[in-house]
Design a protein that fits this description.
Length: 268
């Protein structure tokens, strides 16, 4: 069993942007969740000013995570330091305890990445936020080997950085469904990154003939996840990131309870 976060994106982009992410706080709290994951791409004028949203979050006592819309590396393998800095500033302003970035298009060659990595470390060392990097839906960003290369290169560049080793080191957010998009088997990713995984994104994927889309896990999927969880701490924080009805508190609570009890004891 472990703490459950709910991603605001689970309620649908249209619903969220029409009323703001702050309007979901009480709904999430009443569902029994332990935290909320705010999505940068869903911030709207309803969420301004940020200090008012921060006050509402603090009053709820929910743990706050912030998901940046900016990957560490864009499709050209470049890093936008200014945009990443704005994400960090927003997360701090909202009282988040940690921020999640997608890895993005990790460069194939070490040399062009080194300056970017040194810049990232300098920025990351200045923030109190915990930082976690997700296996995203892109081919390179979802490849566990890219994540291992990232950490190996950081160690080579700055072995004494607090973001490389110790309690403030970068961790991994592992998304249990992104393998359907990026083509990298979920089991292989967990086996490769288990020592670094600090947060789980929980969603299944369904294909309606027009491509993959997030969907709720069925019982068989929960059993599969439980078996994969054997190499991970049972109390690992996990986030609900599949579509849920915005007007059915009982259904949301059931899904929260299902995720809270992962991994299923009888399968571990």
């Amino acid at each position: 069993m472990g703490p459950v976060m709910i991603c605001t994106s689970a309620f649908g982009a249209d619903h969220v942007t029409r009323q703001g992410q702050g309007a979901l706080i009480e709904h999430i709290r009443r569902a029994g969740a332990d935290g909320i994951e705010l999505r940068e791409e869903l911030l709207s004028h309803h969420d301004q000013p940020l200090d008012e949203l921060r006050r509402r979050l603090a009053d709820s006592a929910l743990r706050v995570a912030y998901s940046s819309a900016i990957p560490l590396f864009d499709r050209h393998g470049a890093t936008d330091g200014e945009a990443l800095g704005r994400s960090l500033a927003r997360a701090e302003a909202l009282g988040a305890t940690f921020i999640k970035f997608a890895l993005g298009d990790w460069p194939a060659h070490d040399e062009p990445a080194d300056n970017a990595l040194q810049m990232l470390l300098a920025r990351f060392e200045r923030t109190p936020l915990a930082i976690t990097i997700e296996n995203d839906q892109t081919s390179r960003g979802g490849d566990p080997q890219s994540h291992l290369q990232l950490h190996r290169r950081l160690w080579q560049l700055a072995p004494d950085s607090p973001r490389v080793g110790g309690p403030r080191a970068l961790s991994t957010t592992f998304d249990l469904g992104n393998g359907y998009w990026n083509g990298h088997p979920t089991a292989d990713g967990i086996n490769a990154l288990a020592a670094r995984i600090g947060y789980m994104h929980c969603k299944h994927a369904c294909n309606d003939g027009e491509g993959w889309h997030a969907c709720a896990p069925d019982d068989a999927t929960l059993e599969t996840w439980s078996r994969l969880w054997r190499s991970l701490p049972a109390d690992l924080p996990r986030a609900l990131e599949f579509p849920v009805p915005p007007d059915d508190p009982a259904a949301l609570r059931r899904q929260v309870d299902r995720l809270r009890h992962l991994p299923l004891k009888e399968l571990c």
